[in-house]
Amino acid sequence: MAKKQSFMDKTQKKKNARTCPVCEGEIQFVKHVRAVKTEAGAWKFRTVNTGICKCNEKEVYK
Ligand SMILES: [Zn+2]
User: C-alpha distances in angstroms, 24 versus 1, 8, 60?
Assistant: First the structure.
């Protein structure tokens, strides 16, 4: 019984939050606006859905 329950817990956690295999931290998905320079030299803003965990949070929240 105990084994079955822990398996259920794991499945539910996976549905609600994704875990990074590298840092084992929770991955949060946020909309992140990124400035992209076009070939013409103009700046364009693109909204990208980024998954953030401890591995890349410093890069995203500069
Ligand atoms: Zn990570």
Answer: 27, 19, 18
The residue extents of the domains of the chain are: 18-60
- Which three-class secondary structure state does DSSP give residue 37? strand
pTM of this prediction exceeds 0.70: no
| Distance in Å, CA 57 to ligand 1 centroid | 9
Predicted confidence (pLDDT) per residue in 15-37, tens digit: 567 899 999 999 998 888 889 99
User: Distance, CA 21 to ligand 1 centroid (Å)?
Assistant: 6
Give Cβ neighbours of residue 30 (< 8 Å, ≥ 6 apart): 49, 50, 52, 60
Q: How far is the CA of 17 from the centre of ligand 1 (A)?
A: 13
Spacing, Cα 19 to ligand 1 middle (Å) = 8
